[in-house]
Design goal:
single chain, ten-stranded mixed beta sheet
């Protein structure tokens, strides 16, 4: 019997692993305690990230606090990625951390299903971490990502997912009175099928607003790997000129643009 290497199967196994483990609690308790189910999913993603982070990057849930204003605290982030080669968190116990902006590399929101309300809450939560970090993060703006274990059965088409995200960004822009480019995350993914990259087209002319494009991709089971690849690329850039080798394992023939391929916001 010949066993052949299959890198795509390995990468798909990341999504399959999350799906299999996520169902265990729900299969046992049904819908009796959604909070426990949510914490379980957060822990699953944190543990997967921990296995793939380079040395010196700590992953935990927690808060970002201002170095200057004791009243300036982010909402709780489902996952914070900290560069502990610079300095340790202010507080750490088990998976809970409290960190200063100077150590924060990325923040991630984790939800069970991608819906209009969960998208809006994820984007707002991530925005609080980015606001506090500002220009104090070690290498420019922190990477913000939203990870959803699945999609709502009533919103499985790409056009529905784009609508949830554009609606959420428009509402958040109006709430905090900031441009969409400042409140948008960097990446959104479901566990298996969908990935969305947020690109900002900065236009210096005052009469030409910044455009934010949401580019969507169908991932054929590789969405967790694509999410991880984009995050690792940010960490590599944060540490200096480097190549994110994981991206080389993901074949462009497998990850393909959705139809429609993008949504645009100003």
């Amino acid at each position: 019997m010949t066993v052949r290497a299959d890198r795509h199967r390995y990468l798909r196994s990341l999504s399959n692993e999350l799906a299999a483990q996520a169902d265990r609690v729900r299969d046992l308790i049904g819908d009796r305690h959604w909070l426990s189910d949510g914490h379980h999913k957060e822990a699953l993603l944190i543990h997967l990230l921990q296995r793939h982070m380079p040395a010196g990057i700590r992953v935990g849930r927690g808060f970002v606090v201002s170095s200057y204003d004791s009243n300036s605290v982010s909402r709780e982030q489902d996952a914070l990625l900290l560069d502990t080669t610079r300095e340790a968190p202010l507080f750490t116990q088990d998976d809970l951390v409290v960190a200063l902006p100077s150590t924060v590399v990325a923040a991630i929101s984790v939800k069970t299903s991608l819906t209009a309300s969960t998208v809006r809450d994820s984007f707002d939560t991530l925005r609080t971490a980015r606001d506090i970090c500002g220009d104090l993060a070690p290498s420019g703006p922190i990477w913000c990502g939203a990870f959803f274990f699945g999609v709502d059965e009533a919103s499985e088409e790409p056009v529905d997912l784009y609508r949830h995200m554009t609606q959420g960004l428009n509402e958040l822009r109006d709430k905090v009175q900031k441009p969409i480019a400042e409140v948008a995350p960097d990446f959104v993914a479901t566990a298996a099928e969908f990935a969305f990259r947020f690109d900002r087209d900065f236009r210096p002319a005052s009469d030409s607003p910044t455009v934010t494009r949401i580019r969507g991709f169908g991932c054929s089971g590789l969405a967790t790997a694509v999410f991880l690849s984009d995050l690792l690329a940010h960490i590599a850039q944060h540490r200096g000129p480097a190549i994110n080798s994981l991206a080389d394992l993901i074949d462009n023939n497998i990850v393909a643009p959705l139809t429609p391929a993008e949504a645009t916001l100003s």
